[in-house]
Amino acid sequence: MLVDIDLQALSPAVNAPTTAHQVISRLTNLLHIIAQKPVPTGAYTDNSHQVRLVQPVHTWEDIVNLTFTEIQYYGKDDPQTRWSLGVAFDSLLEKIPEEYKPPIERQKALLSGNAD
Predict the structure, then answer these.
(1) Where are the domains of the chain?
(2) What's the predicted TM-score (pTM) here?
């Protein structure tokens, strides 16, 4: 929902770059929290530790892409959005575990136009 709010704020009809900036900040905070949690397995057990349900889970890369790809696309011409994304990527790269950095580095490369 936050990504949708951001995209609406970036639309020419609404044109609310400050709202987009605030949403990017909140999304970054959520990613900081997610990166500190154990990786979910999707397996749920009963009281005797027997697996009773297995659900698919999003990978960290899925979450990062869902968070930033559309914002980058629709905010590419807004300087405040580009700045906010740069700050978000730098903050995440500074604080998240090493194994979570590659998707953020790819998003940062997209922002700077250096993506493969």
Answers:
(1) 1-9+59-116
(2) 0.85
Its sign, for the CA torsion 71, 65, 108, 84, is positive
* CB contact at 8 A, 96 and 104: yes
> How far is residue 31 CA from its own chain's centroid?
6
**Contact at 8 Å (CB) between 24 and 81?**
yes
Dihedral of CA atoms 95, 99, 103, 105 in degrees, nearest 10, equals: 60
pLDDT less than 70: residues of the chain: 114-116
Chain mean position to CA 17:
18
* Rg of the chain taking only CA atoms, in angstroms: 16
